[in-house]
């Protein structure tokens, strides 16, 4: 899409852009496109004499005097801070996550400045960031430039975004002056700016003073005053007599705005970066992992940018705190808001008695209709799929069809790209703008969709892996090399010790999503079958997946003929779950590898459960044991010992070795039919994972060792009786007539 050329010179364009933005209390974007030297010189000329304000930020290399310099990879550190000008040096690496983080820190009347090559060179720009999503074995020529085409279209469709080219041409659309917005006639609180903020402050104070375990949840896009509302409420609570409030966030800088607003209402307070003291009271920042052991039950805890905190840490805070307020961004730079709600919402409901939810819609940091917000939302697709399926119901007038989607065609069809990326955002806990760039540009990536009429209702993202040379495969299995972008073959070779695995070829399903109202109708299976068919026709050996394991997902992938081959021994920082690898063969070699790795998994699992996997979710373990793992049946002596334990004739300590064999066989072979869930979980917790009696009792809701022992005996007894009947039946059946 062509950008309109403005028939005015550079000085006039800059002056008019600044004047209108300031009058509207809007933010603007300026793109300087040319050589690196020209971009730096132009930046110096434009901002050295500018009256835009002294709070200035520089992201990337070649920072100038007067700017706070922050590396792109550390851009998250500026969350919670506010700037008048932010320069983003895209020439030193276009980190789209950093751009998203920075854009929300600019106040009304401020400006975002991007330093870029000439637009004619964007399609061939050797962006340093590209190496992050380029797998080993691919060259520069394999990397697509669809992302920059998408960015260019987003610029062309936006107002208040100007491009100054090294040739002297000015392109874009200048904003127009708007009428002064009417004051909020319902505003009754002098400390707040909007009615939304008034409601948010009330909800937080009620969470601190009202019924326990009924938290306040503040939800909005960035710049709507969530952090300020927390700070206002915190100050008022101190004035009402609360002696201590704990605040937290993904990093200390996140709560800067919160503390700033508390100080504003407590002018005699003493303030440091992590602590505010007022008389005998305090507001203290603690990292999320320090809260549970540094707070008492009635401590008021405020969490800012909750969606950016790993779910396990967040869950621990919720479990241990009865007075709680959470603020989270719906369309944040990480795109975590809606996926966060899906994962965190059910857990919160199970721990709490209800919630006080406030959605803030009116901007505070800038005026409504802000051009920069619209541009960033469009470019980074932060609001992809924001219209829910309830708002946009699907009329099934025809069937579904599955197809491989062309990435260039997606860039040219904004509506389809929105549908696709929206599915991924709403179905996964943490989706970043960089995932969009990976989807569009990464070599070896394919996109599949299930469509109904013109609507994408299901999607999958897959990547090709493996096919490594023999010498490299040897280095991988010896732990000397870990080639980027080959998760399945490298994991199998490194952790399972199979050298040939790296030489085979794989299609790995990175993500899969289906519209919520159409789930459990076989659309996921359609996608997997289409992917498997294409991979088989392309001569690939295996189809696999790696995911944060939970029983529901294990069941889903098992129905697709995948077998578990490795359960990671550590829990992911974001998901709090162990990563599970599952595999199915597409060729003879692939089928052989799948059988071999599945056998290894079954053979190693009992010992791993007693050591590195002692803390794995027992429900997940139970689910995995149900997936056809091979287990050695107990011999007569082992069965006799287990029977004695079940009858109360032998103690647990003397029988534990035999109980491991019996439990593992019971849960995999299920000779007597599946045991009741509580009994099965008891076998996993106490016998296989070797957890303490107290921990096992607590997990099962029992009073202590005696009840756990009784449950073990009852479960083992059922198995032993079935085993004796089975053995007697086999003996009778084999007797001579």
Integer-rounded radius of gyration: 30 Å
Averaged pLDDT:
89
Secondary structure: helix percent:
40-55%
**CATH topology descriptor of the largest domain:** Aminopeptidase
Short description:
With 737 residues, the protein is of the alpha/beta class.
Task: Explain how this protein is built.
The strands form three sheets. The protein has an eight-stranded mixed β-sheet, sandwiched between helices. Strands 11-12-13-10-14-15-9-16 form an eight-stranded mixed β-sheet, with helices on one face. By secondary structure, the protein is α/β, with parallel strands linked by helices. Helix content is 41%, strand content 19%. The chain folds into four domains: 5-173, Rossmann fold (3-Layer(aba) Sandwich), CATH 3.40.50.11040; 195-360, Rossmann fold (3-Layer(aba) Sandwich), CATH 3.40.50.300; 400-620, Gcn5-related N-acetyltransferase (GNAT) (Aminopeptidase, 3-Layer(aba) Sandwich); 636-732, no CATH class. 48% of the residues are buried. The chain starts with a strand and ends with a helix.
Which key phrases capture this entry?
737 residues; alpha/beta; Rossmann fold; Aminopeptidase; 4 domains; 8-stranded mixed sheet; 41% helix
